[in-house]
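Entry type: protein chain
Record version: 2
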Amino acid sequence: MPISSNTLFHFTNKKENLIGILNNNFNIYYCIESLDLGGNRILDYAAPMVCFCDIPLGKIKKHLVAYGNYGLGLTKEWGIRNQLNPVLYLEANSILSSSIKVIYDNFILKKAGLFWDFNSKIDQAILNQLRYCKNYERKKDNLIENSSVSKYYDEREWRYCPSYSTNYQTILGGAYLPTKTNLKSINSSVKHLKLEFTPDDIKYIFINNDEEILEFINLLKTTKSKKYSKQEVEKLSTRIITIKQLKEDF
């Protein structure tokens, strides 16, 4: 079995979320990330993105537990065409993490650590690198659950982060780091952004159980038929797979 798939998967825990994606493509949201750069330096930031993985279906069951039983599988060609990229996994105590920490201490902190007025091409290039970094593993709670470690590397994450624009903040940190109370209003600044796909880009539509199959076929007929041809809707209907089938047959 290959260690990576030719498909990029996006899973969610709510049926309504999948319906929204099928109706309106992928929305872009700010995700809050915490990057351990070693030496007691934790970089907390938020960036607009959509996340995927390329875990083979035969190994994806653990991923479903964390992210949910509804989702889409799209071709990797679609991902490359839309400038998605695998994240760069960092071991906190590595030389590379130390180098990024030097950039953080000597470049970002000199601008008050706000990630706000980064307008030059060099600024944007540095922030783009940060947006695609994630720790190889991170202890959930260094004090309470010292032995509980999540190996993010196993998620084989790919990200889509929209390009720099003056219409929204490419990355937020410091005093502007979002909180649970203001995250919704901050997400409104990127509500116009979409990551689009066509029927030919879809390889799988994942739903929870057999009872939902007719519901989703009817959804494709009633909503997508306004935009897609009858043949395209019929083709999409054949790409529906239930999580029960996945767990039994892969």
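Comment: The radius of gyration is 20 Å.
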